[in-house]
Amino acid sequence: MTLLSGQWGRALRTTGRFALDLVLPPTCSSCGEEVDQPHSLCPACFIRMHPIGEPRCDQCGVPLPASTHLGRDARCVSCELHPPVWSKARAAYVYDEGSRDLILSLKYADRTQNAIILARQMNRAGRDILEQADWLIPVPVHWRRLLERKYNQAALLARAVSRLAVVPVFVDALQRPRATSRLASFSADERAREMQDAIRVRPRAVDTLKGRRVVLVDDILTTGSTAAACTSVLLSAGAASVCLLAAARTTPDAQEDISQTELPED
Ligand SMILES: [Zn+2]
Ligand SMILES: [Zn+2]
């Protein structure tokens, strides 16, 4: 038994947190304003976030203005014409000015606690695919980028979702042996070419993934090229199905509004 285990440990930790809150009140994870609860947003930032609810395309997760825009199998026109390789996709928020600060500061500014807020809504948005899942697998980053950022934001999100949905994370099932260029300004063909051989299943993961239902976790779903590359290698390795769960996804409108240079790499 360690010194801080059991009831005393809990009481001390609670008191410690209370004392810390008196010295440093919790702040909004997006703008830094004071808030009542840690890991939360102030009312102004909260209303700038746009959770994706129904109706949305079952396969790519894009929000739709009305359910009349859904075709057969509850899919959007784009998925009917060009079905993605993954089975279903869910995203917690629309990628817009509201969610951008939260996600980019998770990615580039060490605000790792933002994963907790995003994961809450990812768990809600992805409930149906999470209920069926055997493994959560984060989209990998190249080791050089991992050295720069010290962590993989997709792995932080996967861990936070795992705690809520009680689905295990296979954190290094995928690896990214080759660094890729920024994909946002590429054409679909160029993106596919750029992603070829950029991602692979770690050999020791193959047995574990055979016949398993995988949920691939990422921060932002933009063009879907990275997700498609991950899905293809997972299916080739024998995974039974691959679904996607993202913190946010761009919408066709946003892709026109946000200039190419502002679009996040996916
Ligand atoms: Zn705020
Ligand atoms: Zn779709």
TrEMBL record:
Origin superkingdom: Bacteria
Pfam families in the cross-refs: DZR_2, Pribosyltran
Organism of derivation: Acetobacter aceti
Coiled coil: none
SUPFAM superfamilies: PRTase-like (SSF53271)
Membership in a protein family: Belongs to the ComF/GntX family.
InterPro entries recorded: ComF/GntX_DNA_util-trans, DZR_2, PRTase-like, PRTase_dom
Residues of the Phosphoribosyltransferase domain: 191-246
Protein name: Competence protein F
PANTHER family: DNA UTILIZATION PROTEIN YHGH
Domain Double zinc ribbon: 19-79
